[in-house]
Amino acid sequence: MNKTKAYQDLGTTNPLESLVERTNNFLYGLWYNKHITQKQYEKLKVNKEKAELAHLYFLPKAHKPGTPLRPIMSGLKSPTVEISRWLDSLLRS
């Protein structure tokens, strides 16, 4: 993980509250300027009580010599997951 600098250790910092606030402000701006509907805004806005930061975990590659680890990034409750799903459905239609 240190080789690519793709991930950063947050230490004791928790950026979740700021991320939720910035995401909701952005969505509000889209709604206010009529780029999304009220229904879309309500569906996409982040519930700060349910949101969690994405987290990294590892699974062993049992079939490889030395059993290296495969990094997995889980973001099922991240603040932008509903936006990602919505954009995915738009792009697929």
Structure commentary:
- It is a single chain.
- The protein is an alpha+beta fold.
- It has one domain (16-92).
- The protein has 3 helices and 2 strands, in the order ααββα.
- It has helices at residues 16-32, 38-44, 81-92, and strands spanning 55-60, 69-74.
- It has a two-stranded antiparallel sheet with strand order 1-2.
- β1 (55-60) and β2 (69-74) form a beta hairpin.
- α1 (16-32) packs antiparallel against α2 (38-44).
- The longest helix is centred in the N-terminal third of the chain and has 17 residues, at 16-32.
- The chain is elongated.
- The N and C termini lie far apart (36 Å).
The structural class is alpha+beta
Q: Element order, helices and strands?
A: HHEEH
The percent range for strand residues is 5-15%
- Give the distance, in angstroms, between the N- and C-terminal Cα atoms: 36 Å
Spatial ordering of strands, largest sheet: 1-2
What is the total number of structural domains?
A: 1
Which shape, going by the Cα principal axes?
elongated
| β-strand number | 2
Please bin the fraction of helical residues: 25-40%
Low-confidence segments, given as residue ranges, are: none
Largest sheet, described in full? Answer: 2 strands, antiparallel
What is the average per-residue confidence, as pLDDT, rounded to a whole number?
92
Radius of gyration: 17 Å
Number of helices: 3
